Every structure is written in structure tokens, then in C-alpha cells.
Amino acid sequence: MDEFTLIRRYFAARSPHRDDVLLGIGDDGALVKTSAEGLVVVADMLVEGVHFPVDTAADAIGHKALAVNLSDLGAMGAEPTWFTLMISLPESSADWLEGFSRGLFDLATRFGVALIGGDTVRGPLTVAIQAAGTVPVDKVLKRSGARVGDIIMVTGALGGAALGLAQRQGRLSLEHSAADAVLKRLEFPEPRVEAGRLLRGLASSVIDISDGLLADLGHILEASEVGASIRLDAVPADGVFSLPLDDQARDAVLAHGDDYELCFTAPPDAVVSIQKSLAAIDVEVSAIGQIEALPGLRVLDAAGRELALGAHAGHTHFASNEQT
Ligand code: ADP
Ligand code: MG
Q1: Cis bond upstream, residue 236 (ω within 30)
Q2: Which ligand lies nearest the alpha carbon of 117?
Q3: 0.70 cut: is pTM over it?
Q4: What's the 78 CA to ligand 1 centre distance in angstroms?
Q5: CA distance linking residue 59 with residue 176, whole number of Å
């Protein structure tokens, strides 16, 4: 199969249609019509053996490559519009391409985001996507807006993807339904796009959790020039874990990325509105701590004692995340 047949058959023909794409795949560049809103542009690259295990199914790779980008757009409060796909393929197996494009376009179609271009080369399996989304410029959600007294919140539950990776790598053998659940968390993360959009005007800062809660909350603290305390027992752990968390489970929940939940801050008087908005779209939200003037990130036990995790503990203090 030649390159142009491949692009037409597996990529161009399957993209959802958008009226604002004036010229899509096929010319030297794409032409899109932009609104008066701001345009958020993000990019993420996945390398086989580094960002996903070698035996990962093609549809999972297609899904995840786009999902991680949509997650970044969600964390900015943006509505996804278009993306480009840069793919390096060792061989063009029809089976693999079929699975990859299914995973990719199932997600693209759900979010109405159109593929408008890219590049296709032969080489080790690598998938890079650049995506764009719109947001009113005064509503964009940044890392830098957290203020002393703000409540720290997290969507969904954490640590499932860490267990999925352990299961995939044979370090863990969960029973059937639990194994399926954690593998889904690892390989088919659900980007929090709608949640991000609802946080416009309510959250003071937002980040998506790709490197682990401690590391990513650390980025908010650094950008906002504040500190924080969180309560370990308030951090939502994936349903697969049994409570209380043992040390390994604590690492998975606090320091492993790949769950792609949102961590955000909001003034106390916005918390009820946020809980209502997110409940309406069936997204769970947990308050886990608050922003403080004292620099650094403190993790407290149920009695309010600080756990010895080290100041600014992030994935550098924990060896659990091999996929950074
Ligand atoms: P050029 O030689 O001008 O760089 P290419 O021959 O690489 O163009 O690509 C032809 C067209 O196909 C372009 O519109 C390009 O954006 C698109 N394209 C190439 N690879 C991909 C891909 N993986 N996904 C989507 N569009 C692609
Ligand atoms: Mg050209």
C-alpha cells in the first residue's frame, strides 16, 4: 500500500466533518476558519516501549494518542476543534492501521474534532498529535491562578492506570473484571473535556494529572507561587484498591500519572457550583486540601500529621511511574 492510499483510506476518509475546515487533508496545508475566541494549541508524542508497552493493541494506541491531547485541552478549558497526526510506522499492516484508526476516530467523532493534516513516515512506531481548541481568551484555565484559601479538588479517582501498567507488565494478576477495569484506565483514558469547559469562570487554576498528583499539583503551586496541604484519606483512590492504602497503593495514587483526571483549585464559595455542574455530567469530584501561603506541598494523615514524603514530592521521589 502506498503512502497516499494509506493516508486516504485510514485517516482522511474517517475523520468527522466540520464546517470550519475549509481545506483538510490533501493540500500542502490545511485551512480552517477561526472564531473570535482564543485558540489553545497542544501537542503530545507517544513512543513505543517508552510511553506504551510494545504489545499494546493498536486501537488503544490510537485512542490514547488523541486522548492525552484532548486532556490538555480540557485542562485549559478549551473545546477541541482540529488535530494533526504525525506517525512513524515500521510497516503498514492493514490490521494494525484498521485498529489504530478505529481507536483514534471513535474518540475524535465523540468529541467532534477533525483530523486536518499530518505526516506519515517509515520508522520505529511513534505517534505525535497536535490538537487545537477554542476558548474565550478571558476564560482560559491556567496553572497560575491558585490563591491562598482556595480548595484543591480532583475529578474521578486515581491510581487505576498504575495498576493497569503493573497488570500489563505481569507484575500483578488481578481477577478478570478488576484487570479489565484497570487496563481500561491505562489504555483508554477518558479526557475530561466537558469537565474542563464547565470549570471556566469557577476554577482558579487547573492541570491534568499526567505525571502524578503530587508532581502536577506541584506545578500549580510553583506557577501560582503558593503552598498547599492535602489529606491522604481525602484523595480519591481507584475502586480496585482496598483501604487503608498500603505504601505501594499510596505511591500509585499520589505519584503515578496516566489517569488523566483534572486537579484544580477554586475559591471556597465556588465549590458548591462546581460540585453541581460536575454531578450533572456524572463526574465525581473530591476536595482534597487547601492552598496555603507556606511554600511546599504537605500530605497529612487522618490525624493531621504530616507524612514523610519529602517536600515537593513528585515522581522523582517515587519510582513507580515508568511512562513519564
Ligand atoms: P507534503 O509533501 O506537502 O508535506 P505529504 O505528502 O506529506 O505532503 O502529505 C499529503 C497530505 O496528506 C497533506 O495534506 C498532509 O497534511 C496529509 N497527511 C500526511 N500524513 C497524514 C497523517 N498521518 N494524517 C493526516 N493527514 C496526513
Ligand atoms: Mg507540500
Answers
A1: no
A2: 1
A3: yes
A4: 26
A5: 20
